[in-house]
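Tokens as discussed.
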């Protein structure tokens, strides 16, 4: 890697579906331990970018490096460094919380049951370890998804609209888990429409507009200041 402080290096990244361009020569470098909020209208390319970083989608052009590994050629090595949480829980409803984590741990070649107990406690689900996931609220499923993403202690955590469908209490719990992950040294990229949370949680704001980066800064800004920049950058209004 060209910079020991950077963990993600993206250069001239493009993605098109047929004749429809989604990302257009986007370049972005993320330093280790940063919490980056990715903002932008629906269809701006936020989710596509996260999927390409995680190896779920292949780029049309450009390069991605995570921890010095090239995507998609060294995807297996990259996936070992990444945990992803989206608005879809990606859990097995017919398994308990503990059984879900045991299953995913095996995929990573892990067998540490103490680690699983520790994670369930960390996300506040230790008392529901033996409950079927189908009995969980949306917020509880999202907490278990975070435990799943943290199983292999990845360097990078990707969050794609993690607050979708959460009530206020569940959102507050998720705030705390994100803060804890950031303080523990994880690099976080979070695609979100939640400007207030971006202002409070992230230490870098990136606004994607029309498939490329229109704004990128590490200044601490209020949600109202971000809203103004968002509108200026994208030409779209946003609720906050």
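Sequence:
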């Amino acid at each position: 890697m060209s910079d020991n402080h950077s963990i993600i290096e993206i250069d001239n990244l493009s993605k098109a579906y047929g004749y429809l361009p989604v990302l257009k020569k986007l370049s972005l470098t993320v330093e280790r331990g940063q919490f980056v909020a990715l903002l932008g209208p629906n269809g701006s390319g936020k989710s596509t970018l996260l999927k390409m970083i995680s190896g779920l989608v292949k780029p049309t052009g450009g390069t991605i490096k995570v921890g010095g590994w090239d995507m998609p050629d060294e995807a297996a090595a990259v996936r070992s460094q990444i945990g992803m949480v989206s608005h879809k829980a990606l859990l097995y409803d017919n398994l308990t919380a503990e059984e879900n984590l045991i299953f995913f741990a095996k995929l990573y070649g892990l067998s540490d049951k103490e680690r699983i107990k520790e994670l369930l406690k960390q996300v506040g689900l230790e008392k529901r370890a033996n409950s079927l996931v189908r009995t969980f609220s949306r917020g509880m499923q999202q907490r278990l998804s975070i435990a799943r993403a943290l199983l292999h202690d990845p360097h990078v955590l990707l969050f794609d609209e993690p607050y979708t469908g959460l009530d206020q209490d569940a959102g507050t719990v998720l705030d705390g888990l994100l803060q804890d992950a950031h303080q523990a040294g994880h690099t976080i990229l979070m695609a979100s429409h939640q400007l207030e949370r971006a202002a409070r949680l992230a230490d870098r704001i990136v606004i994607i507009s029309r498939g490329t980066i229109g704004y990128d800064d590490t200044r601490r800004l209020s949600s109202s200041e971000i809203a103004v920049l968002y509108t200026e950058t994208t030409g779209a209004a946003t609720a906050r």
